[in-house]
Amino acid sequence: MAITIAAPHVETGDWTSEAECLLLLSHTGHKVARSTLRRWLSAAGVPSRRMRGAVYYPWTSVVQVHRDQTVRRLRRAGGL
Question: Is residue 57 assigned to a domain?
């Protein structure tokens, strides 16, 4: 039997700027507003870094949070 360990936000060194995150997520067909993304990431405890005047997030964590929240939205709307 496999054991799953809950470690939702492991840093992998894949820091991506907020602007690039928004651009990449727009290609999924489920765009998200900057303020919504910030709120989701903050609520999920995803770390952020400010570098060279921009905010960066770990891309892997961004994708996971976006997936979870998109599924939640679709279920609420009856789309899943």
Answer: yes
What is the pLDDT at residue 63? 97
pLDDT digit string (tens) for 40-62?
Answer: 999 999 999 999 999 999 999 99
Q: Considering the domain boundaries, does residue 27 fall inside one?
A: yes
- State the chain's mean pLDDT as an integer: 88
For residue 7, being part of any structural domain is answered with no
Token digits for 3? Answer: 């054991």
Neighbours of 8 (CB within 10 A): 12
Number of domains in the chain: 1
CA-CA-CA-CA torsion sign (71, 76, 77, 79): positive
